[in-house]
Amino acid sequence: MNPHQKSRSDRLTPQRRTLLLGMLGGAGLSLVGNAGTALAARSSGTAADPAPDFNFDTGNSVRELFVEGRQAAGGLKAIAPMDVTMMIRVTQMAQLAWFDAVAPYHPTAVGVYSKLGRRPASERATNRNKNIALLYASHRILETLLPTQTAEWRKIMTSVGLDPDDKTENKTTPIGIGNLAAKAILANRQRDGMNQLGDEGGRKYNPQPYADYLGYRPVNSAFEIRNPSRWQPLLGPHDRRLQQGTGDVGAFVVQQFVTPQLSVAKPYSYAHPDEFRVAPPKNSDHTNARAYKRQVDEVLAASAELTDEQKLMAEIFDDKFLGIGLSIGEACAAHDLDLDGWIQAHMLAATAAFDTCIAVWKNKLRYDAPRPFTAIRHVYGGKKVTAWGGPGEGTVSDIPADQWRGYLLVGDHPEYPSGSTSLMAAQAQVTHRFLDSDTVDFTLPYAKGSSLAEPGVTPVKDLVVHFDTWTELNQACGMSRLWGGVHFMSAIEAGWDLGARVGDRAYEFVVRHIKGKVDH
User: Fold this and answer.
1) Residue by residue, what is the 3-state secondary structure of 311-356?
2) Which domains does the chain have, with CATH numbers?
3) What percent of the chain has pLDDT over 90?
């Protein structure tokens, strides 16, 4: 399933890679960077001539418009405030829309939520109809899920000469097929358990979209450890998107378990997340004092021995768009996939990511395990320990344990298993199987002092982080969570196992749809 390869000169350059920061989830949804004149689509349902920057017949809109166009469009400022779990859902639905919209133009593929027939071979002689259909489908998904940014989504359409207001539903035109594919997805996912409408749990007034309706309450408070074996919300600056917390000086907030209802959301590739129950985190049981202290000391030792490369890898994989999202595009480029290949690879990665998140959140809710900062406070209290002392401080030997923090900011959810590790393991599994290759060839160059956590300090000289294979990428992602001080090794190991298992299931699900071996 690895189509034609072109010359390596067509590969993304390191310079271009550095411009692709801020990708959305598994595929890198982004705004289009083309500056062509907007031309309205004809009312007959056929698309107008494209803007000169994009060729509908030979172009790959996934690669050229959604991935490589991000920088010219100014990034994803609109989506940045969303939690990662929400971004993964939006990404999956948008990439599912690509897949379902293009299925009628594929020799065998069938949509997951739409049955739109098979278009004649003559209509798939070029990429034109596929590009148009997937652009309309993703536009409908994005304007529905992220309505406050409709103007930005419209730019994607008008920049290549398409009419965003064309909502025709003709099954014989790419515009109609794209609109119908998105309509079916939105209808089927509106009540998928994520509380998209904000009225779950019997709420009648003042809906709160995506709010928890399961009634989760933490055992510990941000100010008191009542049970060292359970998750403790962290007290932190109001704006935590930057390591330094530069927003709203003097304002602090207590973490909330973000989207716990993801644990009961409807998966695509399996029946119930209990199929992926991981072993209990016995080392996080404080009554098992020796094992509990051992994993605390392991985190502190890693914190004290951080190298510049480890710090940068911690940052890379903490940015899910960069470490996890960009890597799938790099693999597609490395293997020179055609438009169908890009769509299918991203559909695989996005489905694996969403279904993995459900299983991870089910286990996080089940075990409610503490983060390293809680366990370190419990074991050592105010005693001085040796560890990384904070941005620009390096390793110090006199930091009170209750003032310690990891190199990374800790996520708003319980510790076990590691979500990032699970996501990367799932993506590595589906992509490796789809491409029948371990090659990813992923390079990220960093200039001296370009770290986000330690600007002007790390790295001390120009440094290039490179991964030849998915195996290396998967290993580094897991270990980066220990280096960042946000996970224990048991959570990382559980993530490797869980992600690979869900990845296999997602692969089988998507491939069945590619081959048309499903019943509607």
Assistant:
1) HHHHHHHHCHHHHHHHHHHHHHHHCCCCHHHHHHHHHHHHHHHHHH
2) 31-189 (1.20.144), 261-515 (1.10.606.20)
3) 78
